[in-house]
From TrEMBL:
Gene coding for it: bamB_5
Protein name: Outer membrane protein assembly factor BamB
All residue ranges annotated as the Pyrrolo-quinoline quinone repeat domain in the record: 110-230
Organism name: Rubripirellula reticaptiva
Cited PANTHER family: CELL SURFACE PROTEIN, OUTER MEMBRANE PROTEIN ASSEMBLY FACTOR BAMB
Origin superkingdom: Bacteria
Pfam family, one: PQQ_2
Amino acid sequence: MVKLGLQIFVFASLCPFAGLIADDFTRFRGADATGVAADHPSLPARWNDSKNVAWISDVPGQGWGSPIVVGHRVFVSSVVADEQGIKPQSGLYLGEGVRDPAQGIHHWMVYCFDLNSGAKLWQHEAHTGRPVVPRHPKSSYAAETPATDGERLFVLFGDLGLYCYSLDGKLVWSKPIEPKKTNMDYGAASSPVVHDGQVIVVYDNKEESWVASFDSKTGNERWRTARAETMSWATPFVWQNNVRTELVVPGQRVNRSYSLDGEELWSFDGDMSILVIPSPFAAHGLCYLSSGYVGDAHRPTFAIRPGASGKIALEGNFKNSEFIQWYQPQASAYNTTQIVYGDYLYTVYDQGFMTCHSALTGKEIYGKQRFSPKGSFTASPWAYGGKVFCLSEDGLTYVIKAGPEFEILNTNPLDELCIATPSVVDGKLLIRTLTKIYCLTQDEPTTAGQSPARSVGSSKK
C-alpha cells in the first residue's frame, strides 16, 4: 500500500487561489486534481536520462510526494536517514508493513529548486529524531505531496505534523499530529489540500480517525470531524460543482462528502475494497470514486452527480441511485488514480494492464490490455497532446495513444525506481525518481557532449 504523493495537473482556466498563476502546480495531481495538463509545444513525448533533459537535481533521502510548483520554484519533501534502512523495491507487497520503526536518527526535510535551472534555492529541516511509527516497506516517511495557496507552502508528514513555510523557506507555523497505529503498520500517506484559507488533512487510522481544517495563515484548527474509518489513504478532493463546493473523501466503510465547515452532506457504503487508495477527482460534471485492492472481488468505480444529500444508495443497490450516474463493479486499480481524458476514463492497474471506459456512461471501451515490456505501477497516469503517459516502478514511461483502441506509441526509460506521480507545468515535465528530479522539455535539449544541469544537495542541514 502506498498512496502517494504522486500524482498532478493544471487546467489553465481553473485556478482557485488568488495568489496563483495559471501554470502553478499546486497539489497532488495539480490544481484541478485531474492528471490532465494543457497542451504545450515544449512538452515531450520522448525522453531518457539524456534526451530532452533540461536539468537533473539530486534529492537526498527518500520521499514519494510529487513535486509542486509556484512561479519558478519547485518544492519536494524527503526524509534522510543516518542509518541505511530497508530499500524499497518494485512489485506488490501483500501483507504486513515494517513492524518496527526505522532505526537511527532521521531528518524530515523540505527542498526548493529553481524550475528553470534545477539549482537548489533552499532547504529546511522540519524535524530531527527517531521515527516512532512503522511504515509500509515500499513507502516513505515523506509519502505526501505538499500543497500551496500561492503565498505559502504546506508540507504534511502524516504521522508527525503539518508545516507551513513562506515561499522563500521561512517556517511560518507548524502543528504536531499525534501518531496513531495504522492498518498493518502501513503509515500515513494522504496529501493535504488547500481551499479558501483552509488546509484540509485526513488521517485515517486504527485508533482515532479524523478530517480537520487548519487556518492557512495561522495554523489554528478551524474544525475537526471524527471518521469511522481505518483503512483509507486517499487524498481528499474539493469538488467545485454547479450546486456547491464540497469536500469528497472516500472510505473503506463509507464514502462521504462534507461541507467546508466539516458537516456531512452525503454518504453511501460503496462496498469498497479493503484498502482505499485512489483519490477522487471530477470531470464532465461528475465526481469519480474508486478502490481496487488486488485481492478483492469487488473493485468498484462510481461516477457521482452533484447535489446529493443524506444516504444516496442502499448497500449493493448502486444502479438505482438518483445520484450515481454509473457504476462498474470491477474497474479500479489498487494504488493508481484513474484519469479522464476527453470522453474516456483510463485505469492503469498495478500489475501492468490498462482498461478504458466511457467517462459518461461507464461502458467498457476496451478490456485489460497488457503493457509490453511488462511492468508494475504505483504512480498515476497523466495526459497531454493526445497521449496518456504511464510511469512504471522501474522508471519506464509507456506512451499510449488516447482513444478507443489501445496502442503503445513508444517507451521512455529512466532506469530508477519511480513511485511518485509526475508533475506538468509551463511546458516542463517533472519526474521524481528514488534519488533525483528530472526536468524534461522538448525545447531545451541537452547540448551534445555535455551533461544535463545538476544541483547536488547532499547535506542534511
